[in-house]
Amino acid sequence: LPKHEFFVDMTCEGCSNAVTRVLHRLGGVQFDIDLPNKKVCINSEHSVDTLLETLKKTGKNASYLGEKSAQ
């Protein structure tokens, strides 16, 4: 699956929980949240636009950082 990295302006656990909630609702995603660096890495078949729209549903500022190459 493509792995995408996003910036999400998360400041606390509540913010990262909101991200977790919207991504679970979307479904079909595997993700990990890096709260200190305000990054969310998502493995998904969904388009970047769909993922970004979903992340913005948290009310947080979100932007696409690019595709992460598989290590």
Automatic annotation (TrEMBL):
<feature type="domain" description="HMA">
    <location>
        <begin position="1"/>
        <end position="63"/>
    </location>
</feature>
<dbReference type="InterPro" id="IPR036163">
    <property type="entry name" value="HMA_dom_sf"/>
</dbReference>
<dbReference type="GO" id="GO:0006825">
    <property type="term" value="P:copper ion transport"/>
</dbReference>
<keyword id="KW-0406">Ion transport</keyword>
<comment type="subunit">
    <text>Homodimer. Interacts with ATP7B. Interacts with ATP7A. Interacts (via dimer form) with SLC31A1 (via C-terminal domain); this interaction improves ATOX1 stability and controls intracellular Cu(I) levels.</text>
</comment>
<dbReference type="GO" id="GO:0046872">
    <property type="term" value="F:metal ion binding"/>
</dbReference>
<keyword id="KW-0187">Copper transport</keyword>
<keyword id="KW-0143">Chaperone</keyword>
<dbReference type="Pfam" id="PF00403">
    <property type="entry name" value="HMA"/>
</dbReference>
<keyword id="KW-0186">Copper</keyword>
<comment type="function">
    <text>Binds and deliver cytosolic copper to the copper ATPase proteins. May be important in cellular antioxidant defense.</text>
</comment>
<protein>
    <recommendedName>
        <fullName>Copper transport protein ATOX1</fullName>
    </recommendedName>
</protein>
<dbReference type="InterPro" id="IPR051881">
    <property type="entry name" value="Copper_transport_ATOX1-like"/>
</dbReference>
<keyword id="KW-0813">Transport</keyword>
<keyword id="KW-0479">Metal-binding</keyword>
<dbReference type="GO" id="GO:0016531">
    <property type="term" value="F:copper chaperone activity"/>
</dbReference>
<dbReference type="GO" id="GO:0005829">
    <property type="term" value="C:cytosol"/>
</dbReference>
<comment type="similarity">
    <text>Belongs to the ATX1 family.</text>
</comment>
<dbReference type="InterPro" id="IPR006121">
    <property type="entry name" value="HMA_dom"/>
</dbReference>
